[in-house]
Amino acid sequence: MSKRIFITGIGVISAIGKNASETLSSIKTASSGVGEIQYLQTVHKGKFPLCEVKYDNTQLCELANIDPKTRITRTSLLGIIAAQEAWRSAGSPVLGDGRTGVFSGNTVGGMDKTEHFYADFMQDAQSGDIKTMLSHECAESTERIADSLGATGMVSTISTACSSAANTIMLGARMIKHGLLDRAIVGGVDALTKFTVNGFNVLQILDEEYSQPFDENRRGLNLGEGAGFIVLEAEGIAKEEHILAELVGYANSNDAFHQTASSPDGTGAFLAMKGALDVAQIEPSQIDYINVHGTGTPNNDLSEGFAMQRLFGENIPKFSSTKAFTGHTLGASGGVEAVLSVLALQNKIIYPNLRFKTPIAALGGKMIPETALLENQDLTYILSNSFGFGGNTSSLVFKAYK
Amino acid sequence: MKKNIYINGLGNISPQETFYQAMGETVVKAEGAFMTCQEPNYKEFIQKKLLRRMSRIVRMGLATAHKALEDASHPPLDAIISGTAWGCVKDTEKFLETIIEHNEAYLTPTAFVQSTHNTVAGQIALLQHCNCYNMSYVQGNVSFESALIDAMLLFYDNKASNILVNGIDEQTEKLGILLERLQCAKAGERVMGEGAACFILGAEQTSNTYAQLTGATMLYRPKDKTSVKESIQRILEEANLDAQAIDLVLTGNQDQSLEKELCTNAEFSSYKKLCGEYPTSTAFATAIAAQLLKGDPSTKKALEINKKDVQHILIYNNHQDVNHSIVLLSKVDN
Predict the structure, then answer these.
(1) φ/ψ (deg, to 5) at A387
(2) Does the structure show a pLDDT above 80 at A244?
(3) Whole-angstrom Cα distance, residue A69 to residue A78?
(4) Helix (H, G, I), strand (E, B) or coil at B234
(5) Residue A170 sits in a domain of what CATH number?
(6) B212-330: CATH, from 3.40.50.2300, 3.40.50.150, 3.40.47.10, 3.30.470.20
(7) Choosing from A51, A61, A138, A162, which is the catalytic residue?
């Protein structure tokens, strides 16, 4: 029989907190991270809100225990902070034996630095600090994270848009199942950049107000930034006292409908959720809560809603989108939401879908997310969805460790 | 668990004439610090109206996918896995330049949409109507190896019979300037290249099989030379081979002492003289190794191989002693 995969550590930083405990208390007090732009230098300041991590890079260096004079991207800093927290919460295992992999997802790598460099470069091709470009590639932050942990097993980076981090979790689990690794630190990170903000803006899917996922009157998404990592350990390696939850299901598929839009019937989303349940060998009725992708765009929520109806029929489990708290953290979102799923299982809570008012009529007016924090919930299985551009759709199933 | 995996189809765009035939009669040599691809007539595979909006990397990615699928007689795909380090450079530049030039105004979505690293894998899925597993790896010089290893795991899991895997990277004029400033590109010393190589891997051998993929691994910051050797030996052992069985090493390295110490019966050939230096160059090496194992004489000539019979090829690339890549291919009896 193949090995079970345990989650022994979690780490997260986002607009609602610099670690797991701050994140949890923000959610419990219904404090959303969305707000007016403070840190990103952009002409859009004041026009639409973002979910920024509330620290500048110098402060992030302090949190990451890195000399602020170091040449480092915001992406790497956020990643290091969350991955270090995950590693510490797993009991700070020694990672130098080549049996621990580090897999991270992101969408724009070190673009936050590149776009500054590029302004100089465009004036004069020989100007600008050329070493900036060494941190441009997506893989750079992953390697910085691995080095900060001293991990020497396999290191790789996935970029499948907003499903990037979910896919690294799946990869880590598969590697462990095959005995290629004993342990994997998996998740994702993305920092807000002008590049991304303008990209989503020109696609006209940003909400100028605070987003309302799964609401009839939703207008778009609020972009966020952050990082979320979890530590996966093989059965036999994981120490009983560190086990927080179990990863039992995962699947990846492609919507194959449009480069950026989701199919009206949610084919990719359906296949990902169904596939993850199949791997977990459970029935739809066994899912206790879905942390939906729920970006707040008209297209995603409708398509995801249809896919949920197709899979769960009349008996749709309790669900909510936590993106009303964190914003859409893109390549990090699967990691951030994996941490939230583990926290939900540990604390027996279900998160509120902030700002929801009216159910989506096209979904029959019946799909109502949870709007208040639910406590003392008997949770066994949580499904977490991450869907992205390029048709990439992934779902994960987490199980309580009892 | 472990299973035989075969290369049953391929498409290869490189600085050499490798698209319409295995290898051109005349080997193209580097002039200056860059080698650029010899591209096919894309209109043969991609609709004109789509073609207009596509950057070179997307065109190369789709054309090689088309070719590889045709070559393998169009098996149904169970996964599409892409490897690219630089991603869609041209569209990234385009969008970034407009942001800076017009102070975040007058933007159009096309360049942004096509700038994401998963564009090619997504487009292949779209054009092939494939809802299957879809992944894009962006791990610098082991992006292609990451994709290969993922594919191998899917075969081992019985999740796939046929998988499309590629390694793609494009050069642009601007990237060229940056690479020269970083002293990565230097005429006569370090020639930078580009390329797109696409493979159809299958669990069953076919009449078109090029070679067997007998092993692949990647190492991150190995602690010393010995641990690299041990990893190569482990891959060989898993394939029931020893180092003496290697007939040819396609090496990407300046310093070839490690591979020469290990593979004492092998010939050595530096494949980068044909394609230049770029992060997914090992995909090009895999393509020419596959052609060679299938018996293509022009590839053998281009690589200046003397051995009559080549049974096992080791591809080894060491990038700055950070990322090491090892791919093992073996001849099959047709």
Answers:
(1) -125, 150
(2) yes
(3) 16
(4) helix
(5) 3.40.47.10
(6) 3.40.47.10
(7) A162
Element containing residue A100 per DSSP (H, E): strand A100-105
Determine contact, residues B181/B155, Cβ cutoff 8 Å.
no
Q: What is the CATH topology of the domain spanning B6-202?
A: Peroxisomal Thiolase; Chain A, domain 1 (3.40.47)
Based on the number of CB atoms within 10 Å of its own CB, is B56 exposed (0-12), middle (13-18) or buried (19 or more)?
Answer: buried
Q: Cα A8 to the chain's mean position, in Å?
A: 18
Say whether A390 and B136 touch across the interface (CB within 8 A).
yes
Location of each CATH 3.40.47.10 domain in chain B: 6-202, 212-330
Closest CA in chain B for residue A257: B126
Average pLDDT over residues B72-81: 98
Q: Do B87 and A138 touch (CB under 8 A)?
A: yes
Helix (H) or strand (E) holding B196: strand B195-202
Report the distance separating Cα B295 and Cα B22, nearest Å: 10
A61 in helix, strand or coil? Answer: helix
**Three-state DSSP state, B69:** helix
Residues A167 and A394 sit within 8 Å (Cβ to Cβ)? yes
The letter for the amino acid at A120 is D
Residues B191-228: pLDDT tens digits? 999 999 999 999 999 999 999 999 999 999 999 999 99
| pLDDT tens string A340-390 | 999 999 999 999 999 999 999 999 999 999 999 999 999 999 999 999 999
Query: What does DSSP assign to residue A2?
Result: P
Q: Are B200 and B10 in contact (CB under 8 A)?
A: yes
Q: Which domain holds residue A361?
A: 5-400
Nearest-by-Cβ selection for A254 from B1, B125, B220:
B125
The share of chain B scoring above pLDDT 70, in percent, equals: 100
CA B33 – CA A44 distance, rounded (Å): 41
Q: Domain total for chain A?
A: 1
Give the list of residues 6+ apart from residue A156 with CB closer than 8 angstroms, or none.
A101, A103, A139, A142, A171, B137, B139, B142, B146, B218
Residue B2 clears pLDDT 90, i.e. is over it: no
Is residue A1's pLDDT more than 60?
Answer: no
Contact B157, A174 (CB under 8 A): yes
Q: Is the ipTM of this complex over 0.90?
A: yes
Q: Do A137 and B86 touch (CB under 8 A)?
A: yes
Annotation says A162 is catalytic: yes
